[in-house]
Amino acid sequence: MEPVQQGQGVPSSSGPSTLTIMKQILSFVVALFLLPQSLFAQEGGALKRLTLRSDLLGFEAVGRLDMSGGFCSGVLIASDMVLTAAHCLEDAVAAGSLDGLRFRAGLRDGKHVAASAAKRIVMHPSYDTGPNPDFRNIRYDIGLVELAAPISTAVAAPFAVEALSRKEQDLSVVSYARGRADALSREARCAVIDRDTELVVFDCDIWFGSSGAPVFNTSGRRPRIVSLVSAVTNYRGKKAGLGMMLPARLSELKQALRAGRGVVGGTVVKSRRIGIGQKSGGGARFVKP
């Protein structure tokens, strides 16, 4: 893996600039689509495996999004709508096919609380699938999967999405990953390392397969999604996760779905196809600034 070169950030209109975060990206940024086992050493951390049905209680809406060649994590934000990372859908969008794309809510050791194939998918219209996307592309690394069969809220209650407040420091992540692909693992507490108005850096234990996993604020009665896992990087000498600020981007993504812009599946006419990003042999996308 070759380190990426530092790029030029564009200051945000208010608050810390993207450049502040970019200066700390010392070695690489890599999207967390599942890679073959041989490419990287297995990661581990202070995680709780949600093995029992009682362990899963309250997190049934988080599931595994299976696709040809790998998997990502995803989360229900409506009975028929799964939020995940855009790069998890890139191959399906490029191929114009939903074959093999399936969401299994609360999957643990071969059992799931509910499952459905995809009916339609869409990536954020500003997500760059070209060969050399800018680091700031992480801001738009979100996608939606509309399910063919809605999942009852009594079985898996969807999560709300909200803005990450300036004062919020404590986060939680529930995800699948290499070495823990058969059941969800929950890190009950991790922390914000840095943020600006559009990006957030956190120290949660994530790895390949965690792409699209919900990053939660757990300060209220029920967790709320404040970001998605997009990539991993070396930040100030330590491994860290990267995600985007969600509410505005999600609103734009929903508008694209309603308008049929870039949608694959259903009877919607797709917009023009753009080139797919460079990948390693195993499917992960290296995001170069």
CA gyration radius, whole angstroms:
17 Å
Outline: globular
Based on helices, strands and strand pairing, what is the structural class?
A: mainly beta
Tally of alpha and pi helices: 4
- Unreliable stretches (pLDDT < 50, length at least 5) are 1-28, 33-45, 268-289
Number of strands: 16
Separation of the first and last Cα atoms: 15 Å
Q: What is the H/E string?
A: HEEHEEEHEEEEEEEEEEHE
* Rounded mean pLDDT score: 80
Major sheet details: 9 strands, antiparallel
Share of β-strand residues: 25-35%
Percent helix among the residues? under 10%
How would you describe what is shown here?
The protein is mainly beta. Helices cover 10% and strands 34% of the residues. The protein contains 4 helices and 16 strands. The chain has helices at residues 18-22, 53-56, 90-95, 247-259; strands at residues 25-31, 48-49, 62-67, 70-78, 81-84, 102-105, 114-123, 143-147, 170-177, 180-195, 199-202, 214-217, 224-228, 231-235, 238-244, 264-265. The strands form 2 sheets. Strands 1, 2, 9, 10, 11, 12, 13, 14 and 15 form a 9-stranded antiparallel sheet that branches. β14 (231-235) and β15 (238-244) form a beta hairpin. The longest helix is centred in the C-terminal third of the chain and has 13 residues, at 247-259. The chain is globular. The two termini are 15 Å apart. Residues 1-28, 33-45 and 268-289 have low confidence and may be disordered.
